[in-house]
Amino acid sequence: MIVHIVFFKFKEEQKKENIKKAKDMLLSLPKTIPTLKSIEVGLNFANEDRAMDLSIITHFESNEDLKIYAIHPEHLKVVDFIKQVVEYSKVVDYETN
Fold first, then answer.
1. Helix crossing, 63-71 with 73-85: angle to 10°?
2. What does the domain layout of the chain look like in residue ranges?
């Protein structure tokens, strides 16, 4: 099993609206991308300086399935939107049993 985690720091402009839209878009992906086995979208409530605004935890059967997800047109629509509204993101990918 492959775990793909991404953390996002959103720009201040229309932050709440953009976080909600990103969350909704992300949660719609399992309906259209068969290789995406599960997705969890978390909205941050911590007030620390190092805190990120939104996180996703996704699961795939293989690294190849993750690669298919990465270039899927529906995922790319989400990526295009998120690139416009985030300051930066961080990613962690790892394999688990």
1. 70
2. 2-95
pLDDT (tens digit per residue) in 62-96? 999 999 999 999 999 999 999 999 999 999 999 99
Whole-angstrom distance, CA of residue 95 vs CA of residue 40: 17
3-state secondary structure of 76: helix
- Rounded Cα distance between 79 and 35, Å, is 17
Task: Tokens 């399992």: give the residue.
Answer: 30
8 Å CB contact between 56 and 65: no
Question: Taking 90 as the threshold, does the pLDDT of residue 97 lie above it?
Answer: no
pTM exceeding the 0.90 threshold for the entire prediction: yes
Domain 2-95 has CATH 3.30.70.100: yes
Question: Which residues are registered as beta bridge partners of 8?
Answer: 54, 89
